[in-house]
Amino acid sequence: MYKHSTAPIMAASSILRRSVFRTALAAPSTTVRLRNIPAATRFFSNTSAFMSPSPSSASPQATIATGSLPSTIRHPRVLVTGSLGQLGSGLVKELRSMYGNENVVASDIRNAPEDFKANGPFVFADVMDYAQLEGIVVDYKIDWIVHYSALLSAVAEKNPALALSVNMTGFQNVLELAKVHGLRLYSPSTIGAFGPSTPKIDTPDVTIMRPNTIYGITKLHNELLGEYYREKYNVDFRSARYPGILSADTPPGGGTTDYAVDIFHHAVRHGHYDCFLKKDTRLPMMYLSDCIKGTVDHLVHPEMLPQAVYNIAAVSFTPEELASEIRKYLPHFTISYPDPAHPDFRQAIADSWPASLDDSMARRDFGWKEEFGMEKMVKLMLDKIQAQVDAEKRIAMTNGSTAAAMSA
Ligand SMILES: NC(=O)c1ccc[n+]([C@@H]2O[C@H](COP(=O)([O-])OP(=O)(O)OC[C@H]3O[C@@H](n4cnc5c(N)ncnc54)[C@H](O)[C@@H]3O)[C@@H](O)[C@H]2O)c1
Ligand SMILES: C[C@@H](O)[C@H](N)C(=O)O
């Protein structure tokens, strides 16, 4: 177990979040080898820890000569993979507000919209290409990687071979980079890493884990490999098992919990939703801003925590409970469910996952706490989507009147 005292850590964490990182560089003419120094240490003016890595384990690639460089104050430079997905763009925005646009490099295998690219560095990066990723790490002097590239549960189940490559090879690449270049690596896991034999209620961090989906198998593999690198090579690997994430502005990427986002769009636009899960399927869920806040708090925590992987959770509900909450604002909203004789393929995935998580270790170790319960989340989702619909109508009316004026 890593020893830690929470009070100074939380204080340091809040200083860090406010702005500045102080890097105490070694004495003049000293050569500092980065490997085997947890990335956390390098930003917290702990000169003695910084200067005392084990020379025997140093890696030539990760050696820097400090020469007569003065002490500097700087932010960490963060690479976010998969930054165009449901979660990535919000995280990039938050990190840029903390560290400055130039210090957060967004990447994806897709091209980004121009407005996204205008806000800070964006690079094309296929996580299966180690050399390409290493070029980015070196060119941008990256300190931390947040690894968001993945195929989610439903998409993965439809294309297992691709899921194995992206989810496992992609992760192995960033993990190896973290080892070679002394980086901190945050890579989320999921409730999907659990399986049908896992205890379903208040599932703890450490329990039976025998996932039976390709998504879950790849994610559990990543958890175990990350822990191995942490133990064996002192890689600062951090992970949290996210539940299903709800967001109004960014669409979900093809998971089993996507129904809990789709339902809002259908409720506001059409007043009806055909749910692909059974009405009593209870799953853990969380609002996007809570997920981002929990991720940032975990990421910036100045020390390696006692566990590499933590459950984080906010609420758990069924489709029927969600529909009832929506009906408080849209009384005419209706929902239908699949014919029990012909369940959707995602039902088996959902049935293999926990209904609720025990996240007490995350609350204890890095102060995890959600802001959004079900009521607040439903109200905000509906407000945001209604605002989108109103904006679309205004644009359509403007376009319509322009077209009418042109044809008159
Ligand atoms: N969204 C959720 O509800 C949820 C829940 C639990 C865990 N997670 C995890 O959080 C992370 C982010 O999830 P998300 O919802 O944003 O996913 P998403 O599917 O919305 O986005 C994933 C991104 O990865 C990119 N990508 C795919 N293949 C790639 C490749 N070869 N190289 C580089 N990029 C590639 C995609 O273009 C996409 O932008 C994933 O690891 C996911 O497993 C998400
Ligand atoms: C739970 C999670 O990992 C994702 N939302 C999925 O359903 O695949």
Task: Characterise this structure.
The protein has 408 residues and is α/β, with parallel strands linked by helices. 43% of the residues lie in helices and 14% in strands. Strands 5, 6, 7, 8, 9, 10, 11 and 15 form an 8-stranded parallel sheet that branches. Strand 6 (104-108), helix 4 and strand 7 form a beta-alpha-beta unit. The protein is globular and about 65 Å long. The termini are far apart. Bound molecules: nicotinamide-adenine-dinucleotide (NAD) and threonine. Residues 152-153, 190-192, 215, 244, 255-257 line the site of threonine. Its EC number is 1.1.1.103.
Features:
Rossmann fold; 3-stranded mixed β-sheet; binds nicotinamide-adenine-dinucleotide; globular; NAD(P)_epim/dehydratase; EC 1.1.1.103; binds threonine; disordered N terminus; NAD(P)-bd_dom_sf; Epimerase_deHydtase; 8-stranded parallel β-sheet; L-threonine 3-dehydrogenase, mitochondrial; alpha/beta; 408 residues
Q: Strands, helices and their partners?
A:
Blueprint: H1 6-18, E1 22-23, E2 31-33, H2 47-51, E3 63-65, E4 72-73, E5 78-81, H3 88-99, E6 104-108, H4 114-118, E7 122-124, H5 130-139, E8 144-147, H6 153-158, H7 160-181, E9 184-186, E10 189-190, H8 214-233, E11 236-242, E12 244-246, H9 259-270, E13 272-274, E14 283-287, H10 288-300, E15 309-311, E16 315-317, H11 319-327, E17 334-336, H12 345-351, H13 360-366, H14 374-407
Parallel strand pairs: 5-6, 5-8, 6-7, 8-9, 9-11, 10-11, 11-15, 12-14, 13-17
Antiparallel strand pairs: 1-4, 2-3, 14-16
Helix pairs in contact: 3-10, 5-7, 7-8, 9-11, 9-14
The chain binds nicotinamide-adenine-dinucleotide and threonine.
Threonine is lined by residues 152-153, 190-192, 215, 244, 255-257.
